[in-house]
Amino acid sequence: MQLKNSSNISTALAIASCSLLGHSAQVYAGDDKQDDWKVDAAIMYYGEQDRVQAVEAIGNVQKAFGDESLLDVKLVVDSLTGASASGAVAQSQSQTFTRPSGDGQYETAPGETPLDDTFKDTRVQVSANWAEILSPVWKTNVGMNASKEFDYFSLGLNGGLERSFNKDNTTLVLSGAYTFDNVDPVGGRPVAFSSMALRGDYDSEEEYRAAFAQTRMEGSNDKKTLDMMLSVTQVLSRRWLFQANYGLSSVSGYMTDPYKILSEVDDTGTTQRYLYESRPDSRLKHSFYMMTKGALDSGVVDFSYRYTTDDWDLNSHTLETHYRYYFSGRFYGQLHLRYYQQQAANFYRPFMMAGEPIPDYASADYRIGDMTSYTLGLKFGQRLSGGHEMSYRLEYYQQNPENNGFDLVGQLQDHDLFPEVKAVIAQVSYSF
Amino acid sequence: MSIQEKRVPSDFALSHRSWGHSGSFRAMASPCELLINSEDESLAREMMAIAACEAARIEKKFSRFIEGNPLWRLNHAGGEASAIDAETASLLQFARQCYRLSDGRFDISAGPLMALWRFDGGGIPAATDIKQAKVLVDFSLVDFDDYQLQFPSGMSLDFGGIAKEYAVDRVAYLLAEQWPTISVLVNFGGDIACPVSKGADTPPWQVGIENPQRLDSAAALLEIRQGALATSGDTRRFIEKDGQRFGHIIDPKTGYPVVKAPRSVTVLGPNCVTAGMLATMAMLQGEHAEAFLSEQEVEFKCFR
Amino acid sequence: MNRTLISIVIAFSLSACSSLGIEPWEKDQLARADMALDSEKLDLALDDHIYFSKEGSSGGRSLAGGGCGCN
Question: So what's the ipTM on this one?
Fold first, then answer.
């Protein structure tokens, strides 16, 4: 057979096929990018039994610009109400406390843990992050965030650099952040270890006000945080990957909680007065984190461990796992378990003894005391048409504060000074 | 093109894979499969329904085994003119181009010759029968335009040489039109098309090319992100006589299957009909198959 | 002591990295959306916020961060 001229045949055929198929033979050179917008939204309810309740809503919008850039903008609004432990101890008598603003007071019944229910606040946070692929092995990101609540303002900048090695099997990330916080507490910042002025102790309103003013310092207070993290992600196999992070954080400034107090008791355990707490003005923290994540045929599983330590001597261990199981191509269930154990900061004490010298720092905030906490959660997710996904989760979180070695004197033995805090978390998310 | 005929319900199987969904059904005497790069099951089902329907539609229309179908009616017009639709006209035009480009070796009027060579267990036809049949094989006698078709009585047309590749392209393009960002690989028994590229952030589609010595076990692994592939060969349809295999590519000039044709030829092309026609033409080259394809500057693989 | 032990473990895992890994075409499983490290980033962010407010430590998975008056 005589061949027509070389590749004329294949070209001629390609052209002929165009007419046959009705469109260009080079069809759809594949804009393989999905829709370049991605939106995630969630609303969460957090409720402690008899204590704090919060509702938080997050919206995150991600837009891709070409193949190499990604913009992430996030908006968070959360609203807090309810009461939280002030740090004072329970007594067999009823107790009266002055509110942080100095206007008014609240009472605690005998045997109850004193809870300050002044907290009703709403916070708004906005953050934006820009990620850029510089080359096949270098990536960078830069971002900022700002948040505001009634008595608090925060502004931060963050950045990171990422380098991948070994055919993208190993990734090294160095990131850092600088945050500037400003706190302007309701009623002004309390003087450290000053005694809480109680209206009942004074004959006239003016005298009370004068005494209250003595416990206050004017002006707002700053806190500066410098964070750095080194992260290594390594592909172990087709299905498993591993990540290890080291984080260093240096905080300086006002870290005292202006709303927390300590009870000063005598040797019968009876409260004599309440003192405003005081914490150091610097903190250097280290964190070590390891995680492994596996792709299973019918799900995903991850395990992680985190160890933290700092110069407040607060050490903690965290063990966490998530296990996801796909019941069908579009519906999954996920189990979440978390175990947390923390060792008290060196200046934590559940109460002060009358007569003993006032230390440099002290706080009775159970959140920096000895504590073990457990989380058990269940999440269900559904893939809807068009790539939308909806999920809902319910979690139970229990904190068990513990005595870090203090003798409970007198009537303190009759009360539970370390009550459990039980909370329920419910969340619904939607993404598209 | 007026393709919208009554939707014929078709059965298919769908299963979820790590990279998306894989669907399968049988059509045109071949195992047909779609690899869909989407996690969305209902979407995959929609795609499979379209694919199975379109394949069934084309098979019903152009199969030479279905009595009374459109092709049968054209072939039993007894020399009279028949009305044809736009799709049939396009296929005839393509067939004519192929007839010319192959110097008459690819001829869809080789129906009578095909009827003799039934690769279903029968033997080699008698030489006299072949001679008689050859008289009726001549595409130059087929007269058509956009609306009508006419050819001498006794002749018949067979779209078997292009129908499967055409079905693959039609299914692929129907899906790509509706879902231009989802990569789907359409594979009807080794004739493959994937117009929408599989994303660079995911591994390419992997396709096994059969080794003619051993059916059902892939010999070479081809990685494909976008494009089409067609295989022409005797691996599934052949007659074996006296230790010799007769492939199913009949040379209309001789009336016999092509001598020294490769066992199997696989060609990569921009679409399946182009790749398929190149593969067929390569087979018609017999021992010159590789040389022909090299000159065409296309990627190919021949098994002998 | 604890700190030394942990930094040794991390250094070891870093050095063992160069021999581990898979070819780019084997990344099908890891490319799954649910295998991305930030696959449930809203959940993780909400969790981190809860634990940051109710416990004495923070960070680990991502930068410790400040940004709220809770702790």
Answer: 0.86
